[in-house]
Amino acid sequence: MNKKIRISPSGIALFGSLILLIGGFFLSYQYIQEKKVYAFSYINNVLYEKDASVIVENPEELVVEKTEQSEIPNTYIGTLSIPKLGLSRGFLDKRAPSNNVDENITVLKESDYPDVPFGNFILAGHSGTGAIAFFNDLYQLQNGDLAQVTYLNDSYTYQLINSYQVPKTGTVSIRRNQKKTTLTLITCTNYDDSTQTVYIFEQI
């Protein structure tokens, strides 16, 4: 009953090695995840700035643009809701300092607002991992699913009519019916770092 169990030195060494191996795995996993989020942020920043055709050739122009932006408050002017996904997220004026994919879903600079007839309201957002991956579940959408946008106390309802993938080349071609008022959502393709997915909704 009182027999003592002896563990050999080799057993202790094996156990210690196992603990170190498990600890190293978890540390490596966390490091890889952090790098993945950083990569998503970098790719999306480059991608969406180019999508909006923003090319700053003169550093002085950039200073002027930032000065103008500082006068625009970081206050939500509307909300995007997708009932199927339980998504409800505010968006800012496209000139606001925090209108960027690292903080919010982003209104691209060439976007029309929802109250423009036959316009195209274009939003970009992260997918992947992390708290800023607001568009991570868009891949679950199917044609016919609804999205709702509130803007300036009015509500606009859209229906998904098409989605397609394009390679990440720094530009996005938006294929839509220009006789319709549309909502376009753009994000990285789920489980595919080489493409992005474009979702086209038409107002109903």
**Can you tell me the number of structural domains?**
1
The biggest beta sheet reads: 8 strands, mixed
Strand order of the largest sheet: 2-1-5-6-8-7-4-3
**Count of alpha and pi helical runs:** 2
| SSE string, helices as H and strands as E | HHEEEEEEEE
CATH superfamily: Sortase
CATH topology: Sortase, Chain: A
Which regions have little confidence, pLDDT < 50, spanning 5+ residues? 35-67
What is the CATH level 1 assignment?
Mainly Beta
What proportion of the residues is helical, as a percent range?
Answer: 25-40%
Description of the structure:
This protein has 204 residues and is of the alpha+beta class. The protein has a single domain, classed as Sortase, Chain: A (Beta Barrel), CATH 2.40.260.10. The chain has 2 helices and 8 strands, in the order ααββββββββ. An 8-stranded mixed sheet has the order 2-1-5-6-8-7-4-3. β7 (182-188) and β8 form a beta hairpin. The protein is elongated, with a radius of gyration of 23 Å.
